[in-house]
Design brief:
Length: about 260
């Protein structure tokens, strides 16, 4: 069987996955805090017909060899943590992280997850939570009689209680960062889990030691660029089409051989 059949098939499979990745990016173009994903590829082992440097005659070596590549495969899907555009909401509980860092979220199983989605809410007990009800860590309780909420760039939260003219500090939001944020595992709901590849979280106060600052009244949009993704989609479609034509050509060559026999 011609090598080109299986080689072109690997190319079609790779481009199919690439289109899947692009589709997910475009589907999340309006998702708060979403980070786009890029597929990366690498070539497969090459079949060596003649090795470079092989001895031909005494004192004479082969200057170049003969190797035939056997296709491609997906090596990784990399999440790019460049900052998305900020959107002004005016919401007192909306915060965008300008710079590095993630908000910390307590999950139902007691583990901690991480998010860039700063569209916060208040639950029935006054705790700050995500839109899905997961409690933000460290825990902050907003009093029921609070009439105004202020979140400063360094994460301090203050409220003005009924009957008071001055604000009262009630807590501080901290951030976590990772040596390799691309190694985080996306678990849905705009959340990430740490992995061995991401390294352990480093907790700190916004605005200090390389951490970003918080911007109240804003949320961070997706960093997906629609035009860029559509260009990538066109390139992937053309690559898929080219590989399919290779399979068709290889099939026609085999048909000619069969007619000759």
């Amino acid at each position: 069987m011609l090598r080109s059949l299986t080689t072109a098939a690997t190319g079609m499979l790779a481009q199919q996955l690439n289109i899947d990745v692009i589709s997910n990016n475009l589907a999340n173009v309006n998702t708060t805090g979403y980070k786009k994903v890029r597929a990366e590829f690498q070539d497969l082992l090459s079949q060596t017909v003649k090795a470079s440097g092989a001895q031909i005659f005494q004192g004479t070596t082969q200057p170049v060899g003969i190797q035939v590549g056997l296709g491609t495969k997906t090596s990784a899907t990399v999440k790019e943590f460049s900052e998305g555009a900020f959107k002004a909401t005016g919401g007192k509980l909306d915060v965008a992280i300008e710079g590095s860092g993630f908000l910390q979220v307590l999950m139902d199983d007691g583990t901690t997850a991480y998010t860039r989605d700063g569209s916060l809410k208040i639950d029935a007990t006054g705790q700050l939570t995500t839109s899905d009800g997961f409690v933000i860590q460290p825990q902050v309780n907003i009093p029921a009689e609070a009439q105004d909420i202020t979140i400063t760039p360094d994460g301090k939260i203050a409220v003005r209680l009924a009957g008071d003219s001055a604000q009262t500090d009630i807590g501080t939001l901290t951030l976590a960062k990772f040596a390799n944020p691309a190694g985080l595992s996306a678990i849905g709901k705009n959340l990430y889990n740490q992995t061995a590849a991401s390294g352990k979280p480093i907790e700190g106060q916004p605005g200090q030691e390389g951490f970003g600052t918080l911007q109240q009244g804003f949320i961070e949009g997706s960093n997906v660029q629609v035009v860029e993704e559509l260009i990538n989609l066109i390139q992937s479609e053309r690559a898929f089409e080219a590989n399919s034509k290779l399979i068709k050509s290889s099939n026609e060559m085999l048909a000619i051989v069969n007619r000759m026999s």
